[in-house]
């Protein structure tokens, strides 16, 4: 009987990054609070708050949070939780969540600079 090549099936590995550097530099976004929110709210196998070894949430300095998962994990779920955090802290009206690459989300301010231009012409 021939042996299997690897012995074990390769583990599914997902790595997502949420970059919140723009709101953090202005002092309106707290990275530590967001990290705690994710630890408490991320569901693994139907249970929230019990990440175990399957999901790791790490804050890189004061600009990024990296979520690494060995189980199937959706990038869209991270966007949902981020928007929920922004709504909870009444930041949803000023900050939006934008996908800047395949595995990265970025928090940006809404562009409201064009509203002031109309007043100057009158």
Structure description:
- The structure is a single chain.
- The model has no long low-confidence stretch (mean pLDDT 85).
- This protein is globular.
- By secondary structure, the protein is α+β, with helices and mostly antiparallel strands.
- The protein has helices at residues 21-26, 31-41, 75-88, 115-121; strands spanning 14-19, 43-44, 47-48, 55-60, 64-69, 95-101, 104-109.
- The strands form 2 sheets. Strands 4-5-1-7-6 form a 5-stranded mixed β-sheet.
- The chain contains 4 helices and 7 strands.
Q: How does the overall form come out from the CA principal axes?
A: globular
Strands ordered across the widest β-sheet:
4-5-1-7-6
Kindly, what is the distance between the CA atoms of the first and last residues, rounded to a whole number of angstroms? 86 Å
Average pLDDT: 85
Radius of gyration: 19 Å
The proportion of strand residues reads 25-35%
> What's the number of helices?
4
Uncertain residue segments: none
Helical residues, percent: 25-40%
Number of strands: 7
The SSE order reads EHHEEEEHEEH
Structural class: alpha+beta
Largest sheet: 5 strands, mixed
